[in-house]
Amino acid sequence: MPIQYYLFLSLALFVIGIMGALIRRNAIIIFMCIELMLNAVNLLLVAFSKMFNDPSSQLFVFFIMVVAAAEVAVGLAIIVMMYRKVHSVDINILNRLKH
Amino acid sequence: MSLFELIFWLLTVMALSCAMGVILSRNPISSVLFLIATFFAISGHYVLLNAQFLAIVNIIVYAGAIMVLFLFVIMLMNLNADTEPQKSRLVQFAGILSGGILFIVILAALKDAMMRGDISETATDIGLIKNLGRTLFTQYVLPFEISSVLFLSAMIGAMVIGKKEEETVIPGKNPNQN
């Protein structure tokens, strides 16, 4: 199976994530789209790892998962805080960064 | 068509359709469930690529921990009613158009890229815990330790941000003095 198939698959997943981040207004959905993009990159790294027979890129996937977990913890705390302030998770409310 | 390709196309269709479901469904709960299905499909791809350890970690960390966190937050906020305001048609169209243009540009750039290689269908053992652990603790010890510091700071940061605000202190008045 050529590597191109995996390239195009992860590219499609990445673009779906970008489209979701652009067309939705719910902050949580945008956050999930970012997770989707990270996973697309992970999939491509694993495919390269198989192609070059090298475990290093699988470890990069491991570190990306670590960073994603930390990011989700902080990001959801920020979203909860925002909900407590403005009672909404609509990002258009925050577009001026003031009360 | 070999079994490898059959499973590849099956998992690809599942991953892409569930990813479309994430961004198209109105209800945030069903978005989360679609995302979990996408992660399972990606884990299937990992197994297909002989990354068994990462497949398990993906299910445990993403589908098990992160998505449960998302579900908890959505249920705490009571967002399951689909009352989300929509962006205007023009903005949605522009978003889809720019995403599609990005797709076409990168596709055209990668179509004739230098990268030519085949993913062999024979099994290798680089994805097993033994090999990954040996590489992790010889070549990548420093990033591993730094990531533990990152986790600690993320934990403290999440607690500080999520803490309830205390009563605002009026300047000039000592709260202990009554």
List its salient traits.
heterodimer; A: 99 residues; mainly alpha; Helix Hairpins; 3 helices; B: 178 residues; Four Helix Bundle (Hemerythrin (Met), subunit A); 6 helices; 70% helix; 0% strand
Gist?
The complex is a heterodimer of chains A (99) and B (178). Chain A is an all-alpha fold and 99 residues long. Chain A has helices at 3-23, 27-52, 56-86.
Could you estimate the helical fraction of the residues of chain B in percent?
A: 55-70%
Could you name the CATH class of chain A?
Answer: Mainly Alpha
Query: What is the H/E order of chain A?
Result: HHH
Mean pLDDT score of chain A = 88
CATH architecture label name of the domain at 1-81 in chain B: Up-down Bundle
Task: Show the helix and strand layout.
The complex is a heterodimer of chains A (99) and B (178).
Chain A: H1 3-23, H2 27-52, H3 56-86
Helix pairs in contact in A: 1-2, 2-3
Chain B: H1 3-24, H2 28-48, H3 52-77, H4 89-111, H5 129-138, H6 141-162
Helix pairs in contact in B: 1-2, 2-3
Note down, in words, how this protein is organized.
The complex is a heterodimer of chains A (99) and B (178). In chain A, 79% of the residues lie in helices and 0% in strands. Chain A is an all-alpha fold and 99 residues long. Chain A has a single domain, classed as Orthogonal Bundle (Helix Hairpins), CATH 1.10.287. Chain A is elongated, with a radius of gyration of 17 Å. The mean pLDDT of chain A is 88. The radius of gyration of chain B is 23 Å and the shape is globular. Chain B has a domain at 1-81: Four Helix Bundle (Hemerythrin (Met), subunit A), CATH 1.20.120. By secondary structure, chain B is an all-alpha fold. The mean pLDDT of chain B is 84. The longest helix of chain B has 26 residues, at 52-77. Chain B has helices at 3-24, 28-48, 52-77, 89-111, 129-138, 141-162. Chains A and B meet through helix 1, helix 2 and helix 3 of A and helix 1, helix 2, helix 3, helix 4 and helix 5 of B.
